[in-house]
Design brief:
The complex is a heterotetramer of chains A (198), B (407), C (99) and D (659). Helix content of chain B is 38%, strand content 14%. Chain B is an alpha+beta fold and 407 residues long. Chain B has a domain of 145 residues. In chain B, helix 1 runs antiparallel to helix 2, helix 2 packs antiparallel against helix 3 and helix 5 packs across helix 10. Chain C has 3 helices and no strands. In chain C, helix 1 packs antiparallel against helix 2. Chain D is globular and about 70 Å long. Chain D has 659 residues and is mostly helical. Classes of the chains: A mainly alpha (198), B alpha+beta (407), C mainly alpha (99), D mainly alpha (659). Chains in contact: A-C, A-D, B-D, C-D. At the A-C interface, helix 1, helix 3 and helix 6 of A face helix 1, helix 2 and helix 3 of C. Bound molecules: heme-A (2 copies), dinuclear copper ion and copper (II) ion. The site of dinuclear copper ion has 9 residues of chain B, from loops. One heme-A sits at the interface of chains D and B.
């Protein structure tokens, strides 16, 4: 009956699959429909610029390419953190988690800069349908990244406080999944929103 | 439905059928013939509605039969298999063959229905043989009709009217529908199904009436406070009568010579013309009086009153312009004399004074138009619907005298 | 990606991850190059293909879907394909793909 | 959502000593008293709380409906004015759908899924508690609008642009959008939780195809929720940004297309109607076999058709938009797809009927509701098929014929199923049998009332009475005695009978609570696992987790088939089975400890929502509450310490609590 003791919390269920991991994947599946809806709204409205500037007028592709690249690379550091955590290597875990968070912060900083620049070029939140749907979509993504950064720092604190890496490694992996998801959403956004001209 | 059980005897079966089927049939019959509702969806009066009707009758029949079969099967099971102390039945888990059969049969039925449905959908959306075009615009809470110039019907200048849509019989009319504020839906059940009027979009809707007469309709997309009061009518006139109607609409404005009506014109110029257009009306200085409803009303329009008295109803067909007796006379006229009765318009003794005066006295009280005037700030000072104008009784007297000349 | 050595129960070696990241970086560079170089009619399909490749690489390798229990893939791709299906269908009623 | 269940440390070594953290220790576990409810994470208690709240909202929504009917009983009604009427039907539908049927489904799913799959709780007990509180606060928040300047007035599908700030100037729509957003979070977390529970926490031997049908259907529903909620979330966010932050998503003057809202709403909305009905399908698939004393006919067909409905349900949303101007191609495609959905649903109807066939039917109240569902739902489903025929739908849409359709499927389907479930499972949840005598009044008045109320609506609609009209006029009512005026009156009288019928249910509950008979262990001679434990179940559900060998495991333990004669004999009763389970009881059962944080976290949500409507600083305060809640949640000890437990956890109970 020993396995029954393990029925709860984040432990593995009768199938040997981790509850928390399954839950996370379900959540990510659900997030596909959330971002899908926002992306579709943007696609429908991207040409409706009213009096305001058009996407091509405001977008700074070289700049966004760099920040996209930063986010992409943060996925690499994240996966290295997960792998370090799995090996119970606390030092590397903390290191890579911190780097990931900093890369994420760089991305968000870039987005804040980009928003400010757009705003100065006359693209306010309610300037046009293009503007609103652009800000809502990228803003939602930015909020996701920010939440991820907060979780990463919390994770760093957790790993440093009590060194029980074995039991934390799954938590690291979960946040990793979330982080990569945010990254793949950006992969889609970068292509559909930035690279395809209107 | 077969089973391993002994088959029920025919008598039994009939008995249970009779118990359920007959009352059901009686009810259907009752509902079908007892009333003569003006918006009956089962009483087509033109080819478009007819196409729908031809499709839906067999579908309803199929649905009815399926419903009866299910009810009968359940009823029979209740009766036959109730607990009478029999042994615990065999724990049968199902019969795949039976299941599959009973899956395929409905699928086939639906496939057949589907084929006819798709055909009808495309038939109904045909537009290439259109004979006449009318622009229909919905707004809170009335319909505006704009007849673009169509020489073949004698429409040499655009005609703008509201509430009652006048069409010639036997003519394929295309309504080009849109809206000025929220979504409305245009529906004259006896002529065709409904089609939404969506702001920013133009939707096409075909209607055609076989016989002269008045066909009732109702806005069917929820559009705010007075959605329930946003009615309309389609008036079908014979081709000659339609020509007469067009001529009537195009007749130039005649300013009342003097008397109460003349004073009413002055009040109108003072109070009403900022929203309501009367074609040909001139100000005292001889300049044409041009309404600017877009500056006063959220929706950006108010009914054109040039030929108000040529219609039978007002305010989104919520009120009659005719007294009940006169109204009945027109509505129930035979197709042959309907046209002349309709074209006569509203005479002084037929005018429904009560409602018209009530309307001028305080329109929002007669027809809910905004929830809370204090909240109207969000509309930039514009009204939703016709406002309360604080007219004096004598002004109203004069206005009514004036309005009755508008035909 | 055949030369990945499976690592532990699932996943790959750190070197493997770096290699994936390099490929991703290369594709990104290629994507960005479309902004400068005219690829003619190939432009749209090429961008789409590159996007999908990047997406699947991150999902399969960084997120371990390739090595993990199938049920995770089922859950995630169910959401993804459902999203693609319903939103594409909805957009198509706006004549989106024609215009 | 950044909420992650913390992996538990070995139960003996709490990661953080609770005493040192004062308020952060887990609350003492009380068996009784309000604290045992407020901080509970027990799926059964939460299920009961869901149910009680939902029933309260049922009365609210029902009274709104009765007011609607009173207003429409006679022409030119004066009970409500136009403004109030519009709020009334909007909130009636919102309340019934989001605050009654959906949480009622959560109630049953929460309570019975773990029991039916042989688990001790759900996968994430604290998230479960959070879900309930979020739903409760969201529901209250939604209804607060009544007192703060008027409720939402745009109809439950809230079409743009009528929902925009100019056309709906009160805060009603803001409360509506944010309230639904909050209850939506509850649904989403619940969905993740229950799916993981079902996929991961089944008792040994319980393969998917041995799961009870209710669990199956409820699981399909959780998938629908999982994927449908984000869609309405997007729509509601767009609406909120438009109303409160100056965006123009549905502002036609800025070039927006109002059909975007319709698509987003109905991509959610159609799966939503199956979210409402499938659990009831599941319930009666449990009830019919029990009272027919025979297994569900064609179990795999019922299961797969349920899954198929869930699947096809994603491809039909535009049937709500046949008159919206989609163009003939889309209309034709969606029309045919909609018809396709009648096929799997038909499979279910057939299987239920065949389950009755050849059975030994016992007409308990639960059974009566279940049988009535078959017939009434079929009526509603068939009118659904007549809507699916797009050209006829252009005659029917937005008339009372539609109102008739959805009340037949909703009331005759979803609600009858829920009532069937309540009569069936009441003894399980409360240890007492609801009175069959009062129950019969309940059933018959509801059945008669329901047909009198919604039956005439078919006629009303086909004779051209549109829906959402605060008033109707005799001028369009037709002639003769049986005109629309007559049928409107009948419908209104019916709704009173219906209300009295529902009232009998509440009377029954009161009477039962006062002096109901103690229920026997196995009152219905039932078939599935949830009955293989005491009434009500112990906190840890099962003394020993059963190993499952069959579909209808409980039945197979009680009965054996004589292979020669094919006769079914009872070999042992529930008492013997339970006694044996108790003898073999598991050592060291770990049950989750109560927690403060779910309710704190949930409390932050309405505060944020208030702030978004009235003042951003308040929203920030709400955000801080949420962050605080998350932190408390994350660092709270995984287990209550023994000294914290009240009554002190005597080792003899062998129940240890942990996260
Ligand atoms: C519990 C909720 C529920 C359920 C289960 C259904 C089930 C179905 N619904 Fe319904 N529907 C609603 C709730 C529901 N609906 C609501 C709330 C609205 C209105 C929303 C609003 O506007 O406010 C609505 C509106 C609605 C519309 C839009 C109407 C309009 O506004 O114009 C349509 C159109 O196609 C439709 C169709 C169907 C169909 C085809 C089914 C099918 O699933 C039914 C299938 C069942 C059967 C057919 C019966 C059993 C089958 C057999 C016995 C087999 C044999 C049958 C045949 C051969 C036909 N529904
Ligand atoms: C699950 C969903 C559900 C349920 C259960 C109901 C139940 C009822 N509905 Fe509802 N209805 C909808 C969903 C539902 N409805 C929806 C989605 C709409 C569309 C709204 C829109 O257009 O936006 C609608 C619209 C709607 C309309 C159309 C309004 C309009 O278009 O103008 C009407 C009109 O008659 C109506 C009537 C009723 C009635 C009489 C009941 C009755 O069945 C109610 C019976 C219940 C009670 C009466 C409970 C009361 C209990 C007591 C009185 C006991 C008191 C006891 C104590 C205090 C202890 N409903
Ligand atoms: Cu216009 Cu309803
Ligand atoms: Cu639907």
């Amino acid at each position: 009956m020993a396995e029954l003791v393990q029925e709860h919390g984040a432990q593995h269920g009768s199938t040997g699959i981790s509850n928390i991991k399954l839950g996370m994947w379900l959540f990510l599946g659900s997030e596909c429909l959330l971002f899908g809806g926002l992306i579709s709204t943007y696609m429908l409205y991207r040409g409706r610029v009213g009096e305001g500037p058009t996407p091509m007028q405001v977008f700074d592709i070289p700049f966004t390419s760099v920040s996209s690249f930063v986010l992409l690379m943060s996925s690499l550091t994240m996966v290295l953190a997960v792998s370090a955590a799995a090996k119970a290597d606390d030092r590397s875990t903390v290191l890579w988690l911190t780097v990931t968070a900093l890369l994420g912060a760089t991305f968000v900083g870039g987005q804040v800069y980009e928003f400010t620049a757009f705003y100065n070029e006359g693209l306010g939140f309610s300037t046009s349908l293009f503007a609103s749907s652009f800000y809502v979509l990228t803003g939602f993504h930015g909020v996701h990244v920010t939440v991820g950064i907060i979780m990463l720092f919390a994770l760093v604190a957790m790993v440093r406080r009590n060194r029980i890496p074995g039991s934390k490694s799954e938590t690291v992996e979960m946040i990793g999944l979330y982080w990569h998801f945010v990254d793949i959403v950006w992969i889609v956004i970068f292509t559909l929103i930035y690279l395809i001209p209107v | 439905m077969t089973s391993a059980r002994p088959r029920p005897t025919a008598v039994n079966r009939l008995g249970s059928m009779r118990r359920r089927v007959l009352p059901a049939l009686a009810l259907v019959a009752l509902a079908g013939c007892a009333s003569n509702a003006p918006q009956d969806t089962w009483d087509p009066a033109g080819p478009n509605a007819q196409m729908i009707d031809d499709l839906q009758r067999p579908v309803f029949a199929v649905a009815g039969i399926v419903g009866l079969i299910v009810a009968a099967a359940v009823g029979w099971a209740i009766f036959r298999f109730r607990d009478r102390g029999q042994a615990i039945p065999k724990q049968t888990h199902g019969k795949p063959v039976l299941e599959i059969t009973l899956t395929i049969i409905p699928a086939l039925i639906l496939a057949v229905i589907g084929v006819f449905t798709v055909r009808t959908v495309f038939d109904l959306s045909k537009t290439d043989d259109t004979e006449m075009v009318i622009n229909v615009t919905g707004q809170q809470w009335w319909w505006e009709y704009d007849y673009p110039v169509q020489e073949e019907f004698g429409i040499t200048q655009p005609i703008i009217t509201s509430g009652q849509l006048v069409i010639p019989v036997g003519t394929k009319v295309m309504l080009r529908q849109t809206s000025r504020d929220v979504i409305h839906s245009y529906w004259i059940p006896r002529l065709n199904g409904k089609r939404d009027a969506v702001p920013g979009r133009v939707h096409l809707n075909r209607i055609e009436a076989d016989e002269p007469g008045i066909y009732a309709g109702q806005c069917t997309e929820f559009c705010g406070l007075s959605h329930a009061n946003m009615r309309m009518e389609a008036v079908a006139l014979s081709k000659e009568d339609f020509a007469a109607w067009v001529a009537q609409q195009l007749a130039p404005y005649e300013s009342p010579a003097d008397g109460l009506a003349k004073e009413g014109e002055a009040v109108f110029l003072n109070q009403c013309v900022r929203c309501h257009q009367v074609n040909g009306l001139e100000r005292a200085d001889g300049s044409p009086a041009i309404a600017a409803p877009d500056e006063n009303v959220v929706s950006g329009a108010a009914p054109n009153l040039s030929k108000l008295m040529s219609r039978n109803t007002f305010a989104g067909a919520m009120f009659d312009l005719l007294t009940p007796a006169c109204r009945r006379d027109v509505w129930e006229a035979s197709p042959a004399d309907f046209g002349s009765k309709y074209l006569a318009g509203v005479s002084e003794d037929c005018l429904n004074q009560t409602d018209l005066r009530g309307w001028l006295r305080n329109a929002p009280e007669m027809k809910p138009m905004y929830a809370n005037p204090a909240l109207l700030a969000g509309t930039g000072g514009k009204y939703r619907g016709m406002p309360y104008l604080a007219l004096t009784e004598s002004d109203i007297e004069k206005l009514v005298a004036y309005l009755v000349t508008l035909k | 990606m055949t030369e990945q050595h499976a690592h532990e129960e699932h996943g790959m070696s750190n070197a493997g991850y770096v290699r994936i990241a390099l490929i991703l970086a290369a594709i990104t560079a290629l994507e960005v190059s479309t902004y400068y170089v005219d690829f003619g009619p190939l432009f749209m399909p090429a961008l789409m293909v590159m996007m999908v490749v990047k997406f699947t690489m991150v999902v399969s390798y960084f997120m371990h879907l390739k090595f993990d229990k199938r049920v995770f893939s089922v859950m995630f791709y169910a959401g993804l394909f459902l999203a693609i299906f319903v939103y594409a269908a909805a957009l198509s009623t706006f004549k989106f793909f024609i215009a | 959502m950044a909420i992650i269940e913390r992996p538990s440390a070995p139960a003996t070594v709490p990661a953080i000593p609770s005493a040192s953290l004062g308020a952060l220790k887990r609350p003492v576990t009380t068996q009784h008293g309000w604290r045992s409810w407020l901080f509970t994470v027990d799926h059964k208690k939460l299920g009961i709380m869901y149910g009680a709240t939902a029933l309260f909202f049922f009365v609210v929504g029902g009274l709104e409906a009765v007011l609607i009917r009173l207003q429409l009983a006679l022409p030119d009604g004066r009970v409500l004015n136009a403004d109030l009427y519009n709020q009334m039907f909007t909130m009636h539908a919102t309340t019934m759908v989001f605050l009654f049927v959906m949480p009622m489904v959560s109630a049953f799913a929460n309570y019975f899924i773990p029991l039916q799959v042989g688990a001790r709780d759900v996968a994430f007990p604290r998230i479960n508690a959070f879900g309930f509180w979020a739903f409760l606060f969201g529901g209250i928040f939604l209804n607060l609008a009544w007192f703060l300047g008027g409720a939402a007035d745009g109809g439950w599908f809230m079409y743009a642009p009528n929902s925009g700030p100019v056309f709906s100037p009160s805060h009603g729509v803001d409360f509506w959008a944010l309230g639904l957003q909050i209850t939506g979070i509850a649904s989403l977390t619940g969905a993740v939780n229950l799916i993981v529970t079902v996929l991961n926490m089944r008792a040994p031997g319980m393969s998917l195809m041995k799961m009870p049908v209710f669990t199956w259907m409820a699981t399909v529903v959780q998938f629908l929720l999982l994927f449908a909620m984000p869609v309405i979330t997007v729509a509601l966010f767009l609406l909120m940004f438009q109303r409160n932050f100056g965006a123009t998503f549905f502002d036609v003057a800025a070039g927006a297309d109002p059909l975007l809202w319709q698509h987003l709403f109905w991509i959610f909305g159609h799966p939503e109607v199956y979210i409402l009905i499938l659990p009831s399908f599941g319930i009666i698939s449990e009830v019919l076999p029990v009272f027919s004393r025979k297994p569900l006919f064609g179990y795999p067909f019922v299961v797969f058709s349920g899954a198929a409905i869930g699947f096809v349900g994603w491809g039909v949303w535009a049937h709500h938009m046949f008159a919206s101007g989609l163009g003939p191609v889309s209309v034709a495609v969606f029309s045919v797809a909609t018809m396709a959905i009648a096929v799997p649903t038909g499979v279910k109807v057939v299987n239920w009927t065949m389950t009755l066939w050849g059975g030994k039917l016992q007409f308990t109240v639960a059974m009566k509701f279940a049988i009535a569902l078959i017939v009434l739902f079929t009526v509603g489903g068939l009118s659904g098929v007549t809507h699916a025929v797009a050209p006829s739908d252009t005659q029917q849409t937005d008339t009372y014929y539609i109102v008739a359709h959805f009340h037949y499927v909703l009331f005759g389907g979803a609600i009858f199923g829920i009532f069937s479930g309540m009569y069936y499972w009441w003894p399980k949840m409360f240890g007492k049998l609801l009175s069959e005598r009062i129950g019969n009044w309940n059933f018959w008045l509801m059945a008669i009332g329901m047909n009198l109320t919604f039956g005439p609506m078919h006629i009303l609609g086909l004779q051209g009475q549109p829906r959402r009209m605060y008033i109707w006029t005799e001028a369009r009512a037709g002639e003769g005695f049986f005109n629309l005026a007559f049928w409107n009156l009948v419908a209104s009288i019916g709704s009173i009978i219906l209300a009295v019928g529902v009232l009998f249910f509440f009377i029954n509950v009161l009477v039962t609570a006062r002096r109901g008979a103690q229920a026997p262990l196995d009152p219905w001679d039932a078939r599935s696992l949830e009955w293989m434990t005491s009434n009500p179940p112990k906190e840890h559900n099962f003394d020993s987790i059963p190993t499952v060998g069959h579909l209808d495991e409980f039945f197979h333990r009680k009965y054996a088939e004589d292979h020669q004669s094919g006769e079914i004999r009872k070999v042992q009763g529930a008492e013997e089975i339970l006694a044996e389970m108790e003898r073999n009881k598991d050592a060291h059962i770990h049950m989750p400890s109560p927690s403060y944080w779910p309710i704190v976290l949930a409390l932050g949500l309405p505060v944020i929502a208030f702030g978004l409507i009235y003042s951003i600083p308040v929203a920030i305060v709400g955000g801080l509450i949420v962050v605080l809640g998350c932190f408390g949640w994350a660092i709270e000890p995984s287990t209550a310490r023994d000294e914290d437990v009240d009554p002190p956890a005597a080792p003899s109970t062998e129940v240890v609590r942990h996260g």
